[in-house]
Amino acid sequence: MAIDLDRPYPLTAQQIADYRRDGFIKLKQVFNAEELAHYGAEITRLTIALNTQTLPLEERTTYDRAFLQVMNLWEESDIAREFVFGRRLAGIAASLMQVDGVRLYHDQSLYKEPSGGITPAHADQYYWPLATDRTVTAWVPLQAVPQDMGPLAFFAGSQHIEFGRDLEISDESEHAITANMQAHGFREVDEPFDLGEVSFHSGWTFHRAGPNRSTQPRSVMTVIYMDRDVRLKAPDNHMQRADWERWCPGAVVGQIIDTPKNPVLFDVAVTA
């Protein structure tokens, strides 16, 4: 089967404007069924093989009930590496951020098991020791995600709000951030994903997900991109220090994060 993950997915000026306004966008038909089946089988295999969660759902914390999580699958398999290094997703990320190139921060699979709980409201960049907000996460469902499976939901325009940025994902973040979003009238976009539909959200966009009430796992692969020229900042919290050590080993505060774990995945000059 011939698969070309480097095939461009052109964006319109309106789509880029919508992303900049809302802090997220959902795009239809980024992948076809054959591509998702091929790479999804390997991502699922790796998630099951590498997952270390052994507790039953009822004995886990809120965070651990949200999903099974395995990171940097690209280092474990040539097939996973093909997917993570695909220029189609990376090109979309560069276009949305309006930058000349993007690097990999890290990837992660997120499998919300049947009866899995909510993903509490949070902003990803709480965890990242990055000096700018030029980051974006591609959230790639490996199957359609109907409402009862717990699709990712976004608070439109919330990337500009500082309240809640100091909260790690938890019961506290769910209650405090959701209440603040509602109090200030931020629209929550909580809708199903069609097969092949992919969302992209900024590192400071607040988002959450409902529980998986279906009988099937909600299987998702994510890739986190950062501006090619982003610099490491001194960590603000212990989670950012842990991320520095794990995802940017060898990077130096104040310098571009150019390490073997953070390769350039898209460069406009190379494309041109």
UniProtKB/TrEMBL annotation:
Pfam families per UniProt: PhyH
Keyword Oxidoreductase belongs to the record: yes
Keywords, ordered alphabetically: Dioxygenase, Oxidoreductase
Gene3D superfamilies associated with the record: q2cbj1_9rhob like domain (2.60.120.620)
InterPro entries: Phytyl_CoA_dOase-like
Coiled coil region boundaries: none
Domain of life: Bacteria
GO molecular function, one term: iron ion binding
Name of the protein in its database record: Phytanoyl-CoA dioxygenase
